[in-house]
Specification:
The chain contains no helices and 17 strands. It is elongated. Strand 14 and strand 15 form a beta hairpin.
């Protein structure tokens, strides 16, 4: 145990008020750290990510860090993920899992859900990681300045700005709204492909829409009520 210290290994640094390290003995008589537990003011820093929380554990064998407590946050050079219950970061896989009121923000784009799984990839420079795709489960909401979409679950491609939504889909632009079971929404162009079809093993409800004449941000629905989901 140590108080108010930091521990480094490779490109990762863990700082906290208290650290506890667990070791294993190697065949050559040397020791190797297997796990680090951190308590109070926890900050875990990798080459391009920073994770903060009240308590944290880093499993070096699994390359998994888990933080809990208040004000949980993971930041990349351009994005922020927050959570209420826990925040996991799989360093080897470059995957983050935020649980409980999870939110991911990049500039003026916001993705929220009960649980978010963020997949990170190298940016154009190849020197830092950024969120390239987000999977949302439970009360998924995606918002930009011009458009909002919600569903039971879905996937948002951050690079292409395309959302694939399933279950209780609602797409809103201004006062216009389209509802369905399944949707492919281009948040960049404003073109929405709303479909009816099987959702959760049942026949989906018809596509519904509320269009306000003269509304500038009317959604474009290329499929219409006659479409069928995949």
């Amino acid at each position: 145990d140590a108080a108010g210290v930091e521990k480094r290994r490779g490109g990762l640094t863990v700082t906290a008020q208290t650290l506890r390290a667990y070791y294993r003995e190697m065949p050559d008589g040397q020791t190797q750290i297997t796990k680090v537990e951190a308590d109070k003011d926890v900050v875990i820093v990798t080459a391009s990510e920073r994770v903060v929380g009240d308590k944290g554990t880093y499993d070096l064998d699994r390359q998994l860090m888990v933080v809990t407590g208040k004000a949980l946050k993971l930041t990349t050079p351009t994005q922020v993920i927050t959570a209420r219950d826990s925040l996991e970061y799989w360093d080897g896989r470059k995957v983050a899992v935020a649980r409980g009121d999870a939110v991911a923000v990049e500039a003026d784009r916001r993705i929220a859900a009960d649980v978010l799984t963020a997949h990170l990839a190298q940016d154009a420079s190849g020197k830092a990681n950024r969120i390239s795709k987000v999977d949302g489960f439970g009360n998924l909401q995606i918002a930009t300045p011009a458009e909002a979409a919600s569903a039971d679950k879905g996937v948002y491609d951050m690079d292409r700005q395309i959302a694939t939504l399933l279950g209780g889909v609602k797409v809103t632009q201004g006062k216009n709204q389209l509802n369905g079971d399944y949707a492919e929404v281009n948040m960049k162009t404003g073109v929405s492909r709303i479909l009816r079809g099987p959702a959760a093993g049942r026949e989906g409800a018809p596509v519904r829409g509320l269009l306000v004449p003269g509304e500038a941000q009317a959604p474009t629905n290329r499929a219409g009520a006659a479409g069928k989901g995949p």
